[in-house]
Amino acid sequence: MDLSETSPSPTADSDTEQDYDCPICQEVLKMPIRTRNCQHVFCRSCFQVAVRSQGPPRPQCPLCRSPVSEREDRATDIHQSMRKRKGKCRACGKKKVLSKMRLHYRTCRKYIQEFGPISEPRDPLPAQTPELAESSVFNRNISNPAAWNSAGRRYECPYCSLVDLSDMELVEHCVHQHHQEHSPIPTNRVKEYDVDGGKEDLFEVNQAAGLELFEGDILYDKKQGRNSIIGDEYLWPTTVPYYFEDDLDINAKGVILKAFEQYRLKTCIDYKPWSGETNYISVFKGNGCFSSVGNQHVGKQILSIGAGCDRIATIEHEFLHALGFWHEQSRADRDDYVTIMWDRIQTGKEHNFNKYNDIISSSLNVPYDYGSMMHYSKNSFRNGTEPTIVTNIPAFSDVIGQRMEFSDSDLLKLNRLYNCTRTTTFLDTCDFELENICGMIQGQDDQTDWEHVTMATGGPDTDYSNMGRCTDTGYFMHFSTITGKEGDTALLESRLLYPNRNYQCLQFFYYNSGNPNDKLEIWVREYSGINPNGTLRMIETIVGLPEALWQLYHVKLDVSTKFRVVFKGTKGAGVSTGGFSLDDVNLSETTCPEHVWRIKNFKSTMESTPRGSAVYSPRFRSKYGYTFQMGLYPNGTDINSEELGAFAYLTSGDDAIDNSLPWPCPWMQITMMLMDQNADIRKRMSNQRSVTTDPNEKLEGSSMFYWDNPRTVGIEVADEDGTTYFRGPGAGTSVYLTQARALSRDFIKGGDAIFLFTMEDISHLVASQPIPPTTNPTTPTDDLCVSIKCENDGVCVIDDAVKAACRYGIANVAIVLRKLEDLYVILWKWV
After folding, report:
1. Are 729 and 678 contained in the same domain?
2. In three state form, how does the secondary structure of 2-58 look?
3. 723-772 pLDDT, tens per residue?
4. Which of 179, 249, 559, 687 is deepest in the core (most CB within 10 A)?
């Protein structure tokens, strides 16, 4: 039975046919009742038959074996909803009011031919009567086990040797065969809240909200005209003031701050809390995701991050609009790269696919970008099942519309538009492909050197950047411990680095093929007026046995002066057959991830894991003491196929630690990131989703708190080694990433996928952001710009209220670039 898409949901968090199907008879509910303890819903007769069949000493829920009463309360809310809602007959497709669906099934010829005559629930039978074995309430689904198997999980009966049961088959088996047992049936199913509601794209969110916005997510004043933002006066300063309104979700605030960090890492754009500047961006929780384009000079310029919009790429997308960007497919040259299928577009939405000349929307001399986060997806605003945008190169059909991260071209255009020459928090990257090894130097006070190689005795056979995919490439640095004597060292030092913050994250891949006694240490050499030659300070020793694998490491630094990073290898006692290798080194002034989960043979995992089945990460203990884990659905959840699902759960840990923690868990943001393993951190398009533990959130229909101690609200589960623990309810998304995108870029490298996790306390975001007491006076531009002459129609602007600079609007930049190209042609001919 397919429910009408426009019908309201009978519960707060679901809208599926299972909401109205009895889990016992698998038909539409008749006189529904709801159990008080576990909130499960059944037909009244089905429930009473199942309960009375159990016998003494006490009745239990047929689904989870929680204690129940034979006379539970009617589910009047569902009954009333069924009297209003319509669903489709599962056989003939006709729409009927749900409360009348059983009557329709009695006379529907197609239904009777396919499923047989419908059997109404019998009147309650006395416990242990022979009639129970013949009751169609149970036999109906034994003959059709597939109807019970939607979750995809398989279980073993805990009381006998029967195996390979679905969750519902296990329930029925235990009700019939083990009614005398009184422990919960271990189906390991916990509540999982889908924070995205199955909506992958921001345009889906806005359409569901009924928004009628220009191009789907743009606030646009027709009186002002699209040309109005062309010109440098509509750019923001490179440090943009922002204000978080009180109605903004706490999780959204945390994700916005993460988006700001990506801007700082990859561009010169920075963000600061509003301190009285005349113009600023006010971020609030509207009914969807939307923004104006460019600095509109209206003082308070609004940008909405509503429910379902708190994905990092959606936030970056909306802030790109605010910085002056239109959608990629509106470019003047778009017909060279995509074909718009006008007959497949929803009526009244055709204007969203208009294109504009290069005076209005410039490409900034950057080629058309199928991978831009500003591009529509192939199915945007479609009126059926066929795509509205067809890429002229078919291979890019599933590329357009990505909502993971900035593409290389997004960054190139943004950095050109704002004249960026460096980023804010990036320090260094090296894949060792060039002979100059990124300016690194060999240490002076050591006995041997690190070597620049493409393979090493004892391993590895390839580097990590290219994994042997390209000829004449694939270099890494190697310190051999095969020769030499115990205690010999080799120092590899980075170029000089100049920090802006007092914290950094060093990330690198490391291969250990040496002796267990060999040692790799991370040092920093800090320079000051007192020590112009630098002082060495040890940060961390990398520990671990030799393993034939490139391993990812993160090291936290806390340097505030000019410095170098030093990799110090030391030969240990004993015989070695290899040594240490380094590749893909990145250093940025960002926080390090706390935990790493590597899934080997990930493509095989996606192919072999049944739909609706999860694989679980190890449990991780955060620095705050809370223990958590991720559940990954590699082959999709029950709701969404071809999409990876990702959910975060609190779990039980050490009893003493758990008992000392505040419960419910207050305002901890858990971030689950699938790492794009590109060698350069600036070019990565990692995919992530964050959820936050709201201590006030309650389980639906219960007085229990969602993020309470897992021993209170969770279920007992077991690790592969037999260790048992409790897993609490989960929160995440069924549309984490499509399988097609998971197979793209460098999400899988050497066959493996790498997930990174953090848990951060964001309770400071609960309080209101302070409002500046007064607006800062604006510095007269004439005073600072009097000595500045801007050629090629440039405009002098005041950057950060302290510095005059020439800026060029989108059209002006295009003109300048064309002039430079003409000049290059003239010089080339002259030479």
Report:
1. yes
2. CECCCCCCCCCCCCCHHHHECCCCCCECCCEEECCCCCCEEEHHHHHHHHHCCCCCC
3. 999 999 999 999 999 999 999 999 999 999 999 999 999 999 999 999 99
4. 687
- CATH number of the domain residue 559 falls in: 2.60.120.200
The answer to whether residue 239 is domain-embedded is: yes
Q: Please count the other Cβ atoms lying within 10 Å of the Cβ belonging to residue 392.
A: 12
Dihedrals phi, psi of 135, to nearest 5 degrees: -65, 130
Q: 323 and 336 in contact (C-beta within 8 Å)?
A: no
Tell me the whole-structure pTM to 2 decimals: 0.74
Q: b/e string for 218-251 if b means 16 or more Cβ within 10 A?
A: bbeeeeeebeebbbbebbbbbebbbbbbeebbbb
User: Which residues are known binding-site members?
Assistant: 317, 321, 327
Q: Are residues 581 and 441 located together in one domain of the fold?
A: yes
Band of residue 182 on the pLDDT scale cut at 50, 70, 90 = very low
Q: Which of 318, 403, 311, 379 is nearest to 733 (CA)?
A: 311
Q: Is 38 in the same domain as 55?
A: yes
State the alpha helices, DSSP H only, in 568-674. Answer: 602-608, 655-660
Question: Token pair 């409790």 is at which residue?
Answer: 726
Prior bond of 664 cis (ω within 30°): yes
- Could you tell me which residues are annotated as the binding site for Zn(2+)? 317, 321, 327
**Where is pLDDT greater, at 64 or 5?**
64
Both 392 and 259 in one domain: the answer is yes
Q: Would residue 9 count as lying in a domain?
A: no
Question: 182 in a domain, yes or no?
Answer: no
Q: With respect to residue 429, please indicate whether it lies within any of the assigned structural domains.
A: no
Catalytic residues: 318
Name the band, by pLDDT with cuts 50, 70 and 90, for residue 45: confident
Q: Which amino acid is at 112?
A: I
Full domain range(s) for residue 21:
17-141
Number of domains in the chain: 5
Question: CATH number for the domain including 690?
Answer: 2.60.210.10
- The residue type found at 821 is E
Structure token digits, residue 35: 């159990």
pLDDT computed for residue 150 by the predictor? 33
